[in-house]
C-alpha cells in the first residue's frame, strides 16, 4: 500500500531542480510502485505568515505517516525544516533523510554532500523513557528547541533513558544517487 509522504526541504533545492527529481519520481512509475503519494506543501506556502505556515505544516503532516527530509547544502540551517522534523517526530511519523546534492541540478552540476540536519537536532529522553524534549545545537551547545515542547514517545530501553541523543542516533539517511533512490525509495519509507 502506498504511504502518504511529507517532504521537508529548502526551497533553493526546488529552484535547482534536485527536490523535484525525488518528489516527482512517483509520477514516472506510478504511486503504488513508488510506494507513496506526495503529501507536502508547495512554493506558495513561503508567502504566508509564520503562524499560517505553522498551521499549514501541521495540517499537511496530519495526513502523512512518513516524513522525508531532502538534504541539500543549507537544509540543516532552515528553521522551517527543523520545525517539520520535530513536528513529524511528535506526530509519530517515520522520518528519514535523503541527500540530494548528488543529483545534477538545472546547471547540470552536482554539489558536495550537505550537512545532515539530524546531527544538529536532538531529543532529551525522560528518566521514565516515555517523553522527549526536542533540542537543537546552536553552534556552541545543545539548547531546548523553542517552537515545540516535550511530547510522548515509545518507551525507550534503559540505556536511552535520562539522556540526550542527536537525532542521527535514530534516523537514517540515504543518498539518492549512491543508494539508488529511484529503485529503493519505497523500502526507505517503510518503518
Compile the SSE list and pairings:
Layout: E1 3-8, H1 12-15, H2 18-23, H3 25-29, H4 31-34, E2 36-38, H5 50-62, E3 66-71, H6 79-91, E4 94-99, E5 121-125, E6 131-137, E7 142-144, E8 151-152, E9 164-166, E10 173-175, H7 181-188
Parallel strand pairs: 1-2, 1-3, 3-4, 4-10
Antiparallel strand pairs: 5-6, 5-9, 6-7, 6-8
Give the termini separation: 13 Å
> What proportion strand?
15-25%
The total of helices stands at: 7
What is the gyration radius calculated from CA atoms? 16 Å
Quaternary organisation of the protein chains: single chain
Report strand order across the widest sheet. 2-1-3-4-10
What form results from the Cα inertia axes? globular
CATH class: Alpha Beta
Total discrete domains? 1
Mean pLDDT: 89
Largest sheet: 5 strands, parallel
**Portion of residues in helices?**
25-40%
Low-confidence stretches at least 5 residues in length (pLDDT < 50)?
none
CATH architectural group: 3-Layer(aba) Sandwich
- Secondary-structure element pattern, one letter each: EHHHHEHEHEEEEEEEH
Give me some keywords for this one:
191 residues; globular; Rossmann fold; 5-stranded parallel beta sheet; alpha/beta; 5-stranded antiparallel beta sheet
Describe the structure.
- There is one protein chain.
- This protein has a 5-stranded parallel beta sheet, sandwiched between helices. Strands 5, 6, 7, 8 and 9 form a 5-stranded antiparallel beta sheet that branches.
- With 191 residues, the protein is α/β, with parallel strands linked by helices.
- It is globular and about 50 Å long.
- It has 7 helices and 10 strands.
- The model has no long low-confidence stretch (mean pLDDT 89).
- β5 and β6 form a beta hairpin.
- The chain has one domain: Rossmann fold, CATH 3.40.50.
- 34% of the residues are buried.
